[in-house]
């Protein structure tokens, strides 16, 4: 049965989420499938402003609970202003990061606790969860090296955390997968872009009912 889906891409820094998302959107359009691509934190004006506050490297004094609440606030605004209306219009939505980022980064790596972060997100968006999540798994050192090598975007406050923080993020994602084994599909992101695209397309086309 075909229905519109809320799909999220997750993973550590430099795993290739944005690169692959753009290629998957192209592929979906080639198949005449209507999809809205968006991102977190951001995607709409208010959430982009919150993003700037969270990720500004000068904001070194930001506490981890402030950080978790700001991500949840941006998520709430983005979800109700952009994601839910698109789903109601019958579009698929493909979002670069969503709640699992909060669970892995704030819940696990910052040490707030996955259940605590789930609770504030429940206040923000209720019990809504993606239909399907692709987790781009990669050694954090490789992902960070990609970002520094290509120099395509500004380095943000989270990028400059220690390697051990980013390793905890990866471990955090593994914990999240244990909680949601049916929803989250893990893809090896340490392969060529073409191979990763094919792996992700294989997963999505099965779910979307495409050939
Ligand atoms: N499979 C790959 N192999 C080699 N380089 C890659 C691969 N995928 C992406 N890259 C490159 O790595 C860099 C980071 O990619 P991208 O921005 O897509 O990652 P990301 O997961 O969205 O990162 P972040 O979450 O930190 O913004 C880009 O320069 C991109 O071209
Ligand atoms: C949604 C979300 C994101 N983060 C972190 C992850 C990244 O370090 C940045 C976003 O930058 P990107 O280039 O757009 O990937 O924010 C987080 O810690 N918690 C979240 O909920």
TrEMBL record:
Pfam families with a match to the protein in the record: Thymidylate_kin
Enzyme Commission designation: 2.7.4.9
Biological processes annotated in GO: dTDP biosynthetic process; dTTP biosynthetic process; dUDP biosynthetic process
Keyword vocabulary terms for this entry: ATP-binding, Kinase, Nucleotide biosynthesis, Nucleotide-binding, Transferase
A GO cellular component entry from the record: cytosol
Domain of life: Bacteria
Keyword Oxidoreductase belongs to the record: no
Single GO term (MF): dTMP kinase activity
Binding positions for ATP per the UniProt entry: 11-18
Residues in Thymidylate kinase-like domain copies: 9-200
Record-linked SUPFAM superfamilies: P-loop containing nucleoside triphosphate hydrolases
Keyword Protease: no
Catalytic activity from the UniProt record: dTMP + ATP = dTDP + ADP
PANTHER family registered for this protein in UniProt: THYMIDYLATE KINASE, UMP-CMP KINASE 2, MITOCHONDRIAL
Function: Phosphorylation of dTMP to form dTDP in both de novo and salvage pathways of dTTP synthesis.
Family named by the database record: Belongs to the thymidylate kinase family.
Name of the molecule in the record: Thymidylate kinase
Source organism per UniProt: Lysinibacillus telephonicus
Lineage, uppermost ranks: Bacteria, Bacillati, Bacillota, Bacilli, Bacillales
């Amino acid at each position: 049965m075909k229905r519109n889906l809320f799909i999220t891409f997750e993973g550590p820094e430099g795993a290739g989420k944005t690169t692959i998302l753009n290629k998957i959107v192209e592929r979906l359009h080639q198949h005449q499938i209507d999809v809205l691509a968006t991102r977190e934190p951001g995607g709409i004006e208010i959430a982009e402003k919150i993003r700037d506050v969270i990720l500004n490297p000068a904001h070194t004094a930001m506490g981890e609970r402030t950080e978790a609440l700001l991500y949840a606030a941006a998520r709430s605004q983005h979800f109700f202003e952009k994601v839910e209306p698109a789903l109601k219009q019958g579009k698929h939505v493909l979002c670069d990061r969503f709640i699992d980022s909060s669970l892995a980064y704030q819940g696990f790596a910052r040490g707030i606790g996955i259940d605590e972060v789930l609770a504030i997100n429940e206040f923000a968006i209720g019990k809504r969860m993606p239909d399907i999540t692709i987790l781009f798994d990669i050694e954090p050192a490789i992902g960070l090296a990609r970002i520094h090598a290509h120099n395509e975007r500004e380095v943000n406050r989270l990028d400059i955390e220690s390697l051990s923080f980013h390793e905890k993020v990866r471990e955090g994602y593994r914990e999240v997968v244990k909680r949601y084994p049916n929803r989250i599909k893990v893809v090896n992101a340490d392969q060529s872009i073409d191979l990763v695209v094919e792996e992700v397309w294989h997963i999505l086309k099965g779910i979307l009912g495409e050939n």
